[in-house]
TrEMBL record:
It comes from Halomonas alkaliantarctica. This is citrate synthase (unknown stereospecificity). InterPro entries: Citrate_synth-like_lrg_a-sub, Citrate_synth-like_sm_a-sub, Citrate_synthase, Citrate_synthase_sf. It is an enzyme of class 2 (transferase). Its EC number is 2.3.3.16. Keywords: Lyase, Transferase.
Amino acid sequence: MNNTHQDTQAAKWWHTKIIDMKPGEIRYHGYAIEELIGRISFADMVWLMTRSELPSQAQSALLEAALMSAVDHGPQAPSIAIARMAMTCGSSLNNAMASAVNVLDDVHGGAGEQAVELYQTIHARLQRGEPLTNATAEGLDAWREKHGKIVPGFGHRFHPIDPRAPRLLQLIDEAAERGEISGQFASIAREIEQQLRKAKGKPIPLNIDGATAAVYAELDFPAPLARGLFCLSRSVGILAHAWEQKCQGGRNKGPIPKGWLWQYQGHPPRHLEGKKSVNN
């Protein structure tokens, strides 16, 4: 086997349309890195890497807003708490961040992806000519039948109204008024909110996951990428908290303060009787 054939085989082992690199040259989707540095934002780069093209100014602004809106929610959020606990166990920053990102799964971190999926199923019904009210009701029924009663992106354990959600919807509305996006996914989110209120007899407001999902759906991101984008966003908060904990110090901090104990619900106290010693 000659070297040319080996080089060809090696080149075919991995193939990508994302990056072209050789000595002295780095290009992302055809753009030289030295032309991008200082000219595009980090949000632009995220778009380029995931979508193969640079975004418009309007698309970049909405993506930027969604990414920055979800960076942190305090140590009560499992991912943040895990990052801080990991640092008190002597972990490095990268290990603490990895530990935290690994719990951004279906329950904590996955609601945005799920909300995009829900919005898209309702949007597909609208495209077939169904009225918004009917399309939303049918979409919710289909979602519950498949996934259970919880509607992703709505309701919050701490906030009667999530302060992040109205602002993101406002930005969607403003972009829609300028003709930059359709605005249909914000309408879908609001209709879901109304129908949940009627069904429950109380407000079940849009939360950060549902609001960012409306942005990502308006920007035509596939649903799985919505979870990846949330991981990128929350990683900023994870890094900040891990670094703060390192600077604060502390050793082996668990999820509850020292002196607070969990509730034991097992067998009452008992004694070992009538057992032979393992040494006999």
